Task: structure prediction
Amino acid sequence: MLITRQPALRKFWYAVMPAAMLAADRPQPFTLLGEKIVLWRDADGVPAVAQDRCCHRTAQLSKGWVENGNIVCGYHGWQYDCSGACVKIPQFTSEKIPPGARVMAYRIAERYGYLWVALDEPLAPIPELAEDSDPAYRRIDQFYEEWNCGALRFIENTFDFAHQAYVHRAMHGLNDKPQPPLGKVTRHEHGIVMHITQPVRNPDAGKAHIGIASDETVRTVVMDWYMPCARRMHITYPTGLVQSIISAATPIDDTRTMVVQWSYRNDTEEQVPAATINAFDRKVLDEDKDILAFVDDDLPLDTRMNLEQHMASDQPGIFIRRALMDVLAKHGEQEVMREQTLKDARRAAA
Ligand code: FES
Ligand SMILES: [Fe+2]
Result:
């Protein structure tokens, strides 16, 4: 599926940037689902988002600045409010601003220290993360970076426990045990949940990170998928330590993804510094990044077309494909994929 070609995928919230990146006076550009948008804060500090394209001569508004809560185009100074309406044309003297002088404005929310944007009426709420308001947990901001991979390939990877023995063989993957544990997957209205118990290697690089000295340990994991592009990996170790990793794979376009990741831990900075946790998770993420850059970004949803082969541990990925197919069907959309995807898959099967 080419994610930018399915209007139904615009009907979800996406985490686009850390809230701290958006200063009071400096607009920020982002590209979401192939659409250029600009974020800024109004006079009260409330975030706003609009199309990053002035209706006068198409200049990107993100090149401008903020004045009294309005965004000012840097080309000729036209100003827009948070609703996208043009409220000032400095060249006008007595003329009225025409009603067509406006840009599209979108929904924006600030939650968990991040800015979330929906380009169309959302079908699902922003994920509820109980850890965020639980005093037993601290939040650790981890990564905000662009990857050359399809957003759904990132999501699928996080639910795939067969890759760990290979991709993460230098870290927590048990490379002598290629048969992964199988999880129990349940589908619900806004995604899936998978319960899985995962034996892992505990490499020297990770011992300080989880405070366990043995060379192997076990993770009790609850994986949540929040349709379409966010997931929580809630890991409990035998010591009672919990790390709940939130990853949003925000689609910049079909081939590029902004990976937005933060964690919650029920230990303290004195016990394990955030820098130690991030150093370990950085290595794990780099291993995924390396392989996902070379996986076709066009993930076929319709399994009836037999464009990919599957194995038992791919079950969550199949659930994800079906749930997204249902969203498309509900909105009267056909799955759009590249001609090349069909050709490549069929050539192999012929
Ligand atoms: S292009 Fe924006 S004011 Fe002219
Ligand atoms: Fe991985």
About this structure: Helices lie at 151-158, 164-167, 204-210, 274-292, 315-330, 339-349.
